[in-house]
């Protein structure tokens, strides 16, 4: 093999890589929070007494879960302007990621709500609490706790999938990698190193999420 | 609610179906203020259903239910108001696992009575004291024994200052050695004069505190009598047209 | 001249969908074979094998599929491995699939009660026979719902081939969008094509899962 490895361009371009990492984390975190909130709202719709609302929620969830994220990005960035909804690349990226995440989160959260025993809701009702209070104070924490590991894997997947927004030139880590690749042609080194960076990011994200889980969603159990 | 003329609870011709299964058949029942009722009968006779209708965890298809003279509306709109005056204790305790004993007791007063944190804490501690669990206020349900959990559940119900308490087999999920501590707590409550309806097979408890023992079978009230009479008279609770009810529930008279 | 997004254009997308399906199948078969090896290594007695398989799975589950594809397509040729886009994408997707399927099947293998292996060993069966005759059939049954669920992800993952210039359904959509200037309709149609492929698989996976839960 005659190829000479040369990792020096990566050193030259480290500010771009660092900025890419920050941007990847930033859009991912926004999308996680927005996705979870939307996902909870979708779960509420899905359990509402109104059949059309339930149907709407299920259709949305299945439509998002059964189409590629890349097509969703293109739809939002290239398609929606036809309806007068115009976004810059980063806005479109965050929107696509949030909407995508919401459908998966909804599916996961529903499992959590179903895992809370019926007696818990009845005890809340017997105390005279209203539906909103029951979900907020009684169901929420045990439900999230029950599905916290799946939720975390979904969040890590979301962060990894954020690489696709490079396809609409939204600036993040993969976009930075492509840019450096175009200037230096050191594809092997660049994509190997950027892969390792993502690996490190996903490990760190898992650790942070687990710590958050221990702090906010854990309590003694049998 | 100071409508002293009205009975605490009144059921008039109440019937209820689960699908095609009729589980309450034309039930009539009046419970006076301060009265203690023990409800017994074989499994599946509709005891739980009856008391769950009183705070509208179940809805009825026929008849009227009045609590403190206020009728439960068909659409369930006033169910939450009614429930605030009617405490309920479940067989499975149903404590909230992510809250300490104290937090379990503080939730409803804070959300519904809208009282401040300190006042809610003081009230909760008072009732935990009453069930002899003040030392365990900071523990989570998983860190308490079954008997302790059930007493926290009683304190939690008391924190809403209910006029009426409903118990659905409060001791049947407990290990035998814990039954007594819960029954003792209930006897103390009865002595304090609160209106109680209690589904239980603890006939010792019935003898000690009940003003009336009611026997149900197949959704009907077959007998209603003061305990002395109920336990001595030949059982009218076997009608010729009905198979003899399982006598097992009547045996477990422990303390 | 600007064309409208009409039937011929839709047909072009559907022809692209053929390659989507073919690519998914190829990646699933190759990735499945490799994934089985990963699952066996991950549950092997040798500590080194287990460790190697763990790292392998971590790499493919901890990095974006797009970076994996870029690495194979742009990176490997620099080492003298000349790959056309089809080969590169198939290899990339297969490697990706092997990481995920390896982990799914590891779970299946470990869910088979230890007594089964002990009973088979007690009969004097060797490793090959214990695995092929006793463990794997049960493990695959347990992990079938997750396997079908991953197949849905793989079909969606093939869309990334568009970014390397392979004309599957998404790239076909991009091309049609560029000549019709009707991205809204084009990408809706492309989305529906994927939906038509993925929904049956999703429903199947859910049904398998329910059946598995019912049988316990
Ligand atoms: N949610 C429900 N849906 C359908 N049927 C029900 C439901 N809840 C209770 N039933 C039926 O109603 C009847 C009365 O049940 P209920 O729970 O009131 O009996 P119970 O007297 O409390 O019995 P136990 O002593 O076993 O607690 C039973 O036949 C039961 O199967
Ligand atoms: Mg009952």
TrEMBL record, chain A:
Query: What InterPro entries does its record include?
Result: AA_ABC_transptr_permease_3TM, ArtM/GltK/GlnP/TcyL/YhdX-like, MetI-like, MetI-like_sf
Record's Gene Ontology CC terms?
Answer: ATP-binding cassette (ABC) transporter complex
Membrane topology label: Multi-pass membrane protein
Places the protein is found: Cell inner membrane; Cell membrane
Pfam families linked to this entry: BPD_transp_1
What is the purpose of this protein? Part of the ABC transporter complex GltIJKL involved in glutamate and aspartate uptake. Probably responsible for the translocation of the substrate across the membrane.
- Protein name (Swiss-Prot/TrEMBL): Glutamate/aspartate import permease protein GltK
Organism from which the protein derives: Alloyangia mangrovi
Automatic annotation (TrEMBL), chain C:
Q: Tell me where it mainly resides.
A: membrane
Topology in the lipid bilayer is annotated as:
Multi-pass membrane protein
**The family this protein is said to belong to:** Belongs to the binding-protein-dependent transport system permease family. HisMQ subfamily.
InterPro entries assigned to the protein according to its UniProt record, in alphabetical order = AA_ABC_transptr_permease_3TM (IPR010065), ArtM/GltK/GlnP/TcyL/YhdX-like (IPR043429), MetI-like (IPR000515), MetI-like_sf (IPR035906)
Q: Where does the sequence pass through the membrane?
A: 20-41, 53-79, 85-102, 146-166, 186-206
What is the annotated localization of this protein? Answer: Cell inner membrane; Cell membrane
Q: Does the keyword Kinase apply?
A: no
Its Gene Ontology cellular component terms are: ATP-binding cassette (ABC) transporter complex
Name of the protein in its database record: Amino acid ABC transporter permease
Q: Per its UniProt entry, which superkingdom is the organism in?
A: Bacteria
Supply the SUPFAM superfamilies for this chain: MetI-like (SSF161098)
Q: Any idea which UniProt keywords this protein has?
A: Cell membrane, Membrane, Transmembrane, Transmembrane helix, Transport
GO terms for MF = transmembrane transporter activity
Q: Which organism is it from?
A: Alloyangia mangrovi
Q: Name one GO biological process term.
A: amino acid transport
Q: Which residues form the ABC transmembrane type-1 domain?
A: 17-205
Keyword Transmembrane attributed: yes
